Amino acid sequence: DIYYPILEIIRNHSDGLLRYIKNGAIKIVDGNRGETILTVPVNEFTENTKILFNKIRDGEGAFAIPDIEEFMGKVNLTALKASSADKTDITLVVHDLKTGFKPTLGFSIKSRLGNPSTLLNPSRATNFIYKVENIDDNLFNQVNAINTRLKIRNRIEEIESKGGQIKYHSIENEVFKLNLQVIDSNLPIILANIVLNYYKGLGSDLATLLENLEQDNPCHYKMDYHHSFYSYKIKTFLTDIALGMTPTHVWSGKYDATGGYIIVKEDGELLCYHIYNMNEFQDYLLKNTRLDTPSSSRYGFGKLYKENNEYFIKLNLQIRFKA
Questions:
Q1: pLDDT grade for 109, boundaries at 50, 70 and 90
Q2: Hey, which of 22, 90, 185, 307 has its CA 20 to 30 A from 164?
Q3: Has residue 1 been placed in a domain?
Q4: Who's near 102: CB < 8 A, 6+ residues apart?
């Protein structure tokens, strides 16, 4: 295992930057003026961390933790969660023992406590649009009348059992589509295959859906020499989503979380996937993610609709970490 000693934590505060520097005790320093605001013993942080961890582990839903509110106010921890548009949850100065450098790096934090975290949040922007051919208005009405527990899967089964064909057409949000094409021009087609196979019930784990993708070969790559076309592109997509890309903001390819991922395990231990170890990080993302189904009514997908006498159906992409 590789360890990166943490020299300090940098947090945004309403009055500017605060630096939490470990030097025997924890010094809280005004990042603008360089003045020490407060010095707190390490054991005080440790004790309150244990209280917070136990309350989160044992709690359900949203709840207050009055036991540590006084301490959090004292050390200026007024907001635990970063903006949903920001992939960086915490900024650290670490000591890279390999190079001797002390870089400032942003990390995204994912917790295994409570419900599994999402990697790609659902929205109407993540709706994939499919054209449905070889159906008529009668079948259209029959399909939309299906209202079983697995209604979307059953609707797709009904379409295909009656000779209908479901083909990728586009993505609801053009920025997301173009973001995917920045990563790879064929990525919309590739993800459309994965999304459709998921809703067909062929698997939810991304690793399993990748195997189906390679068998389908929707991009008609020459596979004679066993190139990892699809694996490489999916891992690149997962990495970009994890470290910077969001569906509705133009993707420049510049990572926001420049350090990597910090995983909070069930026992409270921290596991870090550093961007320097890209192969391990990408393998982790592929092996530990799955597709999920959000609310079809909220995000407007899962039913046939008609435009200019042609039939379409939208299917939503949501990616979540495994439990």
A1: very high
A2: 185
A3: no
A4: 7, 93, 94, 95, 96
Res. 61: pLDDT tops 80: no
pLDDT value of position 120: 97
Pick the more confident residue, 281 or 97. 281
DSSP string for 173-208: -HHHHHHHHHH-TTHHHHHHHHHHHHHHTS-SBHHH
Q: Are 274 and 104 in contact (CB under 8 A)?
A: no
Domain that holds residue 171: 120-321
- Cβ neighbours of residue 255 closer than 8 Å, sequence gap 6 or more: 87, 240, 243, 244, 275
Q: Please tell me whether residues 22 and 140 are part of one structural domain.
A: no
In the three-class reduction of DSSP (H, G, I as helix; E, B as strand; rest coil), residue 92 is classed as strand
Clarify whether residues 20 and 132 are in a common domain. Answer: no
Residues 189 and 297 in one domain: yes
> Which two three-digit tokens encode residue 72?
């959090």
Encoded tokens for 21: 């520097």
Whole-prediction pTM value? Answer: 0.89
Amino acid identity of residue 179, one-letter, is: N
CB 234 within 8 A of CB 109: no
CA atoms of 200 and 295, how far apart (whole Å): 17
Distance CA 166, CA 317 (A): 16
Could you tell me if 272 and 203 lie in one domain? yes
Q: Report the pLDDT averaged over residues 84-108.
A: 86
Give kind and range of the element (H or E) at residue 170.
strand 165-171
Find the mean pLDDT for residues 111-140: 95
Closest-CA residue to 218 (of 243, 186, 184): 186
Residue 76 DSSP symbol: T
Between 4 and 288, name the one with better pLDDT. 288
- Beta bridge partners, 107, equal 90, 260
